[in-house]
Design goal:
By secondary structure, the chain is of the alpha+beta class. It has a domain at 27-115: Beta-lactamase Inhibitory Protein, Chain:B, domain 1. The chain contains 4 helices and 5 strands. The protein has helices at 3-23, 38-42, 51-58, 135-140; strands at 27-33, 63-64, 71-82, 88-99, 105-111. Strands 1, 2, 3, 4 and 5 form a 5-stranded antiparallel sheet that branches. The radius of gyration is 32 Å and the shape is flat. 6% of the residues are buried.
Length: 170
């Protein structure tokens, strides 16, 4: 094998390794929610449209108001991320269509990325009441204790261990 063939083989192997390594760095784009058509969104007019016309124009809402059906929400969000990174919002639209009691559109509100707020959970553990038990204590802790508390032994709600019928000894 000549030196030039060996160099070509090494170069091809290095190029394949580089391509395989960089393929994990590809940008991932994702879209969630309603697919926005700005022309259709602009066509919804307060005082003119009603629930049926909004549903036929924009489709079913992403969600409706929790306690009443007077507001329909159309939500759309586009994100991007690299391989194992956290998705970052690129574009977002929250369209809120408000209806009056007769079912006519009273207003249409738009909001975007200005409403996105990063959430940073508090570090550490949440304190809980009770004992700290190991895995084996959790698995095997009740062996031999079955029926022990119900046979007249004291419990948290019956510290003297007397039965409900009064048959226990005082």
């Amino acid at each position: 094998m000549t030196a030039s063939k060996r160099r070509a083989g090494v170069a091809a192997t290095a190029a394949l390794a580089l391509a395989a390594g960089l393929s994990g760095c590809a940008e991932i784009r994702n879209h969630q929610g309603y697919v926005i058509d700005r022309t259709l969104v602009a066509s919804v007019q307060p005082g003119v449209d009603n629930r049926d016309s909004v549903r036929s124009t924009l489709g079913d809402p992403s969600l409706a108001g929790e306690f009443d059906d007077s507001t329909w929400y159309y939500w759309s969000r586009a994100t991007k991320q690299f391989s194992f990174g956290t998705p970052k919002p690129v574009n977002q639209l929250l369209l809120a269509v408000h209806f009056d009691p007769s079912g006519t559109v009273s207003s249409v509100d738009h909001s975007g990325l200005e409403t996105v707020v990063p959430i940073h959970p508090a570090p550490g553990k949440t304190p809980t009441l009770g004992r700290t038990r190991s895995l084996f204590q959790e698995l095997f802790g009740n062996i031999g204790a079955v029926g022990g508390a119900g046979v007249g032994g004291p419990t948290a709600d019956n510290p003297n261990g007397h039965s409900a019928g009064g048959g226990g000894t005082p």
